[in-house]
Amino acid sequence: MSEHSTVVVMGGGPAGATAAALLAREGIDVTVLEREVFPRYHIGESLLLSCVPILELSGAADAVRAAGFQTKRGAVIHWGSDDWVIDWTATVGAGASSWQVDRARFDEILLGNAAAQGARVVQDAEVREVSFAGGRPVAVTWSPKRHPDARRTISCDYLIDATGRSGVLATRHLGNRLPHAVFRNVAAWSYWHGAELLPEAPEGAVHSLAAEHGWWWAIPLGGDRLSLGYVAHRDQFRDRLAASGSLEDYYLSSLARHDTIRWMTRGARRVEAVRAEQDYSYTATRFSGPAYLMTGDAACFLDPLLSTGVHLALFSATTAAACLASTLRGDTGETEAWEFFETSYRRAYTRLLTLVSHMYERYEGKQTFFWHAQRLRKPPQEVHGGHLLEAFVDITAGNTDLREAFDPDTRVLTEHLLREGHRAQELAAGSRASGIPGVDMSPARDLSTAPGFWDPRAAAGERYRLTTSPRLGLSTSKEVAKQRA
């Protein structure tokens, strides 16, 4: 018997699970195909503030709270000669917090929530092929990972690709992922018990600490557990790995050379093997097409410096679900809804890409960097009171992306975003040419100039906004005005 689902979501990580939960809550028939059997390990433990309202919207927030994850109230950044302490309770509000999560448990909660909201969830379901007709995906063939011949096919009207870095649509079917990474970095990390945090750190703060040839993250998890990772340029990693002889020796020797990290771990015990992963940035030339949308890492991946991975996953999932719901109800056409999705997700990616680009040029100093952050959103007097630090916090908490999606009046002009992106690339090129010392992770290519990266037709999507009342979808400014009248 053939199977059919109005929407098939490939991938059950945070993006796929959230999109499925939101669609199911709107009464839409949705099926999730997840390759693994949860719980399964995943890196990326730090959540931005923006994740909290999305988890509320999807119905998962109460279960996340009940899981007892470490509360996160800000960040500490030691970058070059600058020290930044970002306390959300002081800059955002007294109750501002998110979590540092065990991703195996967190992702399991989100996928379970999708099922609880009414989505059909199939685990151990590896996608083998997507079938197209007239340029639109019409069916997905899958099988258990260990039994590739036991294939089943499910037809669909719409498809969401949430397959993470494997990017089923972009890499296997469309060939539209740009392989020339902006940041070609490699992360090596492990977990520790008994480590100390910096005394100035807010509760549960993520620590980002510059090093001679890269930077360290330190993420406090529940149970006195610390995620501790070192990120370096690919070439530095290869050379030092060869000299060290093993991944473990490379990691420990890098730790020994950093005074602060050495202090934090002086009485600690490493409790897991060292892991490594390439953090190469990439983007698809288009995040959407006829009857399909790419969410999370399936569409694009950004360097982990600002812990934006889960934010971009949940933000794109929410936008995708709203666009699909609005289209299926007939509130908007597919073309207009898809343009809104493309515009919203690309704006978020471009803004964060530009911030990371400037941050890696760390000789600029934090006041200059905060000034760059201010130019990536509307001036505070046009949104709410504040100063340069507030712009940086607003963007790196994910709040700017959410606010712009819900309120067109708060959106910085697209051409301003692109202009700042180009300036960041020029700055990076200039620093290399002049021999200014810094982290060797500067952008190798300005992706925003690549053919198809920014489709000018997407500007039509800027007149729409996300809405959650009376239901999740899209509306125009005129429609909102009628509702308020």
TrEMBL record:
Any single Pfam family the record assigns to this protein: Trp_halogenase
Organism domain of life: Bacteria
InterPro entries: FAD/NAD-bd_sf, Flavin-dep_Halogenase_NPB, Flavin_halogenase
Gene3D superfamilies: 3.30.9.100, FAD/NAD(P)-binding domain
Any one Gene Ontology molecular-function term assigned to this protein's record: monooxygenase activity
Family annotation (PANTHER family): FAD-BINDING PROTEIN (PTHR43747), SLR1998 PROTEIN (PTHR43747:SF1)
Protein family (similarity comment): Belongs to the flavin-dependent halogenase family. Bacterial tryptophan halogenase subfamily.
Record protein name field: Halogenase
Natural source organism: Amycolatopsis thailandensis
